[in-house]
């Protein structure tokens, strides 16, 4: 649909394109009874871990970004199997990140650009993402993702066990008020500059009631009033000054959370600035945090790992050229063999 030109508006808009409504998408790809059980049980388990009623560890593992459903399901089958074998001590959830926040520009994720060619076929991205998240939940494996576009939750978030605001949006009021409406527990990353206070402020903001513009199930513009999200927690991911997974940083974070009146619940992201963007260093971060937890730091509730079927990353190839199977196209990831070994390390540490 091209835009009518007027002298004062839409000067930089090329097209408006109609999109399916949330209700139509959910009718085409409904939440099945099995998937609903996965979502509800995982949300309860994660809340219990965060609030100290369950002393298992929350592990959020998976690719930096989804770009290929087959590889994602291959990974999901393996993780679902591992989840079953470790569930007495660990709560395993899969990272299904489909919208990527970029520092400047770059591929913006499977939902936004599913053909990876700059066509921005968001309608197909929505369908394929909902289908994929549904199938992963059907395996009994809960889904975690980052909230980026304010309209996307209406289409997908009945399938979500855990959500987060990333380091680039944690200070954004738009995203904080959106988080206040999310039914799942929400993690808040420290800012890219390293400020943990931004994450603590985001927890405070998201815990409060808010009102904001969004769309209904039938895609009518509306104002939604929220009651606030009571399950916010900090994710330490390091920042410009360096990593922040060490015992001092964890103690400082705990103090900030308590001072703001929040339950001290902290996850550590082993990737990003905590690994200095070297995927192989994630193992060191993981083991260090497990040792802190074993020494009695109970505010450490879980870990996040960027992990795929095969280690490393690959550049996006020119159109038509095949990509390597199961290798990240965004941040470098650990491969499956190392991932499995780290999960068993966590299992043994929690003995
Ligand atoms: O997690 C992924 C990346 O770190 C994030 O999307 C930023 O990527 P960029 O700095 O390569 O744009
Ligand atoms: C973008 C991500 O992380 P951060 O917001 O910490 O950079 C991510 O986890 O994919």
Automatic annotation (TrEMBL):
Record-listed E.C. numbers: 2.5.1.54
Cellular compartments per GO CC: cytoplasm
Top-rank EC class of the record's enzyme: transferase
Keyword flag Oxidoreductase: no
Name of one Pfam family that matches: DAHP_synth_1
Pathway: Metabolic intermediate biosynthesis; chorismate biosynthesis; chorismate from D-erythrose 4-phosphate and phosphoenolpyruvate: step 1/7
GO biological process: one example: chorismate biosynthetic process
Reaction equation(s) it catalyzes: D-erythrose 4-phosphate + phosphoenolpyruvate + H2O = 7-phospho-2-dehydro-3-deoxy-D-arabino-heptonate + phosphate
Recorded GO MF terms: 3-deoxy-7-phosphoheptulonate synthase activity
UniProt entry keywords in alphabetical sequence: Amino-acid biosynthesis, Aromatic amino acid biosynthesis, Transferase
Domain DAHP synthetase I/KDSA: 48-342
Role played: Stereospecific condensation of phosphoenolpyruvate (PEP) and D-erythrose-4-phosphate (E4P) giving rise to 3-deoxy-D-arabino-heptulosonate-7-phosphate (DAHP).
Stated family: Belongs to the class-I DAHP synthase family.
PANTHER family in UniProt: PHOSPHO-2-DEHYDRO-3-DEOXYHEPTONATE ALDOLASE DAHP SYNTHETASE (PTHR21225), PHOSPHO-2-DEHYDRO-3-DEOXYHEPTONATE ALDOLASE, TYROSINE-INHIBITED (PTHR21225:SF12)
Name of this protein: Phospho-2-dehydro-3-deoxyheptonate aldolase
Origin species: Deinococcus maricopensis (strain DSM 21211 / LMG 22137 / NRRL B-23946 / LB-34)
